[in-house]
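Summary for the steering committee. The consortium agreed at its last meeting that each partner would contribute one worked example illustrating the joint modelling workflow. Our contribution is presented below. We chose a case with several input lines so that the handling of multiple components could be demonstrated. No manual editing was applied between input and output; the record is shown as generated.
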Amino acid sequence: MRTYHEPIAVLFDERPAQFIWRGRLLLVKEVQALSREASPWWRRAEQSETDLLREREVWRVEAGNGRLGRGVYELARTVGEEDWVLQAVAD
Amino acid sequence: MFTHLQTFSGYSFQYGASQPGALVARAAELGMTRLGLTDRSGLYGAVRFAKACLKAGIAPVIGVDLAVVPDGWRPERRPTAARGGELRDPRLPRATVWATSRAGWGYLCELISDAHATRSDPMVTLGTIAQHCAGRDVVVGLGADSHAGRLLVQGRLDDATREVARWRDELGRGVVVAMTNHHTGGRGVASAHQAGGLLRVAGRLGLPAVATNMVRMAHREQAATVDVLDATRRLVPLDLRNIDRRNAEGYLKSEPQMRFAVEEAARLVGADADAVLAATEQLAERCALDPMADVGLGEIRLPEFEILGTTPEAAPRVLRERSIAGLNARYGVISPEVQDRLDDELAVIGKLGFESYFLTVGDVTDLIRGMGIRCAARGSGAGSLVNYALGISGVDPIRYGLIMERFLSPLRVALPDIDVDVESARRTEVYDRILETFGHQRVACVAMIETYRVRHAVRDVGAALSLPPVEVDAMAKAFPHIRARDARAALRDLPELRAAGLAEKRLEVLFDLVESLDGLPRHIALHPCGVILSDSALRQRTPVEGSFGGYPMSQFDKDDVEDLGLLKLDVLGIRMQSAMAHALGELERTTGSAPDIDALAPFDDEEVYDMIARRQTLGCFQIESPGQRELVGKFGPSSFEDIVIDISLFRPGPVKSDMITPFIDARQGFREPDYLHDDFRPVLEQTAGVVVFHEQIIQLVAVVTGCTLAQGDEVRRALGDREGQEQVKQWLFPRARERGYDEELIGRVWDILTSFASFGFCKAHAAAFALPTYQSAWLKRHHPAHFLAGVLTHDPGMYPKRLLLEEARRLGLAVLGLDVNVSTGEYRAEETPDGWGIRLSLADVKGIAADEIERIVEAQPFQSLTDFWERASVSQPTAEHLVLAGAFDSLYGIGEATGIRSSTQVTRRDLLLTLADLHTGTRKQVPAQAAFTFTEADALDVVPSGLPEMGDDERLKAELEILGLDASRHIMERYLPMLRAIRATSARTLLEAKNRSEILVAGVKVATQTPPVRSGRRVIFLTLDDSTGPVDATFFEDVQGPYSATVFNTWLLLVRGVVRRTGPRGVSIRATGAWDLGQVHDVWRAELERSGSPDDAVAAVRALVEEVPEGYSLVGEYVPPEKEGHAAIADDHTRAGGMGRRRVLVHASGFRQSPYADIKPQGTSAAEAPRKLWHSSPGSAGR
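What follows is the complete predicted structure of the assembly.
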């Protein structure tokens, strides 16, 4: 797998449905894995109004389109936000 | 369709973050029809859970999550971590055990009891589980947290398979594999990878695999609370190593979310997700319990008749015979009235099938009396003639107009409540005897689940967040004892909290978490009095564990026990009963005979009532509080009935609805009693037309509608909420009209019913209380030294001991100092040439151990300090404390400190020197030339060194520090010169003060109370003792801002206030300021020493008292009750200002109350802190 750190746009409805990477639209065929990890909120507890629930999630999906064929992509973001990043690709 | 089989509620103790009811509510929202509860190590929450399920129409699946000791496991021995650290949680693998039927519930109970049997940490082995579960109605689940699950995390699939196979071999078809996928990534516990591994193990062994979510919270948003619980449970600060969760997935997920998680895991190993989900539902169906038939809600389970020495057929006859025998003994002749009443009661008991209940309770009270332990019934049970006949209660229900229906009703098939008060000091003896008599299989104590309130929540969250312990401690103590969820409301409402800086922004996360802990169980303890008496199947109905003191304790609390229909007897340890027993023992010891205080009927000793009317009730049961003393002063009870009324009036309800004033007015003849209608006269006459008792409500309803008393009690209960009130109204009005009452009258009756129904007091309960009240007052009147010795020894009251000593002095009793040759572990009455005195007890010496007291008493008398040191073998600090507190004074003839002393007189300082030598073993042989100063040859141990004796001040300080008592003189004497100089008013001269004059009073804090008052505002009542008597001052909201912290946290106070005359003997003080008396005294002394001018010193104090507190202002809707001006009114509102936005609780009756009324105020209670009385000022001038 090659690693990246590229901001991308993802259409998300309970799970990623499609995303645009380097100008190409990729459709998600299957979710292979999901992982979520909480952050140690107590280290920030003294700054008020932090979201104690902040988690990063990584979706490993199989995606592609007609011309390019399929590949496996890892899409990551902060849960509930739209700061999507493409972090790895295996094709 | 998905069922969460594995769910942890708050009843897993610092593990789950949600109440069972919240979990059920969420499952219902998600459209689920079944829900599991698998709390750790017990069924603590199961009954509540089953009840919530029953209400929500959800089928409960109940199991337990147990720690399993793997073969060959040894607890890790690590150096002790901070606060116990991780040693608290050995993180053993776990297994889940579900019951599939009523029988299964029984096996579950026995398995859990077994898990708790030997260790403090409950745990089982595969062997224990197999012994209780193999081939029975239970299913064992091995999941992500099991030993096999952990082997999978290490990549040892074959070992994991072998481990599960071992369980299957023992348990056969009773084993399932449970996978959980929390999407944690990696290969850890509850990762998709591990879940897949569990599916493979199940597939290899042909076992069913189910899916669970190991739920610890109803909602994802509670995740931070779960972390705090992990850290708190392990007594460590929050850190990644110390918390179990990696993300917030362990909540009640919906079916699609669960399907997604299962599919991810199944895909990894090529398993069939649908099969897993189907197996989950199959297991759920198999384990679904019926809350009534299986769990046993709503049953009645009494001891078998055989254990009571009778049979089901003979029981009614036996009960009747015992009742008649009892009545013959009580009355001599049974009148037709008594006979009828007995027949009625026995008919009701028979109809309900409760013979066994009464026979059991009767046996228990006989048992207690047979042990020579004082015993009295309390509660509505005193209304029953059968209870009176069986000796369960000691008050004649017919003579005092008590009715049975309030206690036992044919319309309610619920076990009635009988509470038995016994001597607190001998309560455990009673428990032991009950256990012995009824057998361990039928008896267990009731548990009490302690839940988070604000103080504990602040402590635990603060510790988890690694805040400095000192800061956490100060924050926790600043709060009154309120619910955790009200923490922020209190920050808004209470000025002293804002002044302490607790409303700061940086503490917001802390208080968020504090509020989230609200009501979660944190600890299980033995209920102070509940004992379950049931049949021999008790241990199949409840798990039993050992209490801290070693008693078998059910895992259910009193509500659970009631829901399961188990007979619960409250055996309360009452210190007053012990105090009276001690008084009687002292009478026996000193005079050779003790009066029979159980034969004081008809309770008509005028001297006793005279003492009560003079408000000299300190130490008396129920009538000693400041408020009660005021009430008895106004009321002047003159009969037993009056005491019953007095006790009933002094309750939050009557005080709230202001029943006291109309009653006192009518009673003192200031106004005519109003009976509304002649028909009501028999009901209302006893209380001068004011409704005081529940019984009167019941009887009023019966008179107005013609219904039975039993129905009347149902109506009374229904009046408690608005919904019920409406129903009663629809029913009552037509019936009353039918009986010919006019509309206006019915309206007035209705008003009385709605306003008093929830506030009245049970007369039978009050009558039961009135008995020990009278007994204690009688003892105080006729044997004050013996009585107060009892009160001091068993400390039943609300006042510090020093106040009781003060009371003894006022009664002309001598307070006899500590004496190693006379004092024992108890306060004793002692006859002196000048009458009776009270000898101080060794038990109050700071730090003295029980066995030290025992050795001292054993070895008495002592010839000398050396003799004492050798034979009593107490610790050096204890001996030193004894010397300093004057325990050797009489042995060495040490008297008052005077200017002129013989140089040969030994002083306490000499004793201390000797003691130090004895301690270091360097005591030289006593020089012979000292011999002529002593007559006793053995006393040749202490040599007078010419050191001066301790001064009066030093002695007083030593007494306070060591005994917590100002035994030799009143502590206020120290401040008298200043108080005279500034012309402070004493309690004795207060009556001479002019109305509306401004005065200063001072004294030792005796009590602070925040009682409910009608306006809905918080009012602080402060009682001071200034050695001439008690002084009461009231702080209204306008002065609480700048002064409440002083009132709550200071022990010696100077209070400024305005006098209000309330009557010829009534004076109240409306406080306008409060200061630490010690600080004021320092200011006075410093100025006096500096200038040498008494006038300047007084002026300095005046200046201090007249200083306007910074930022002091009035806010809110406060309207001064009187016109006179206030010391200070400023416009700007700062954090030290007055009350903030005010919250008011509104009752069903329309009564408004402050949320801080009636709760224990902040600070330490007056009884706890007497040792702090000595004021030490940090570096003030002149010291």
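Residues 39 and 50 of chain A are 11 Å apart (CA to CA). Strands of chain A lie at 2-7, 9-13, 15-21, 24-38, 55-65, 69-78, 85-90.
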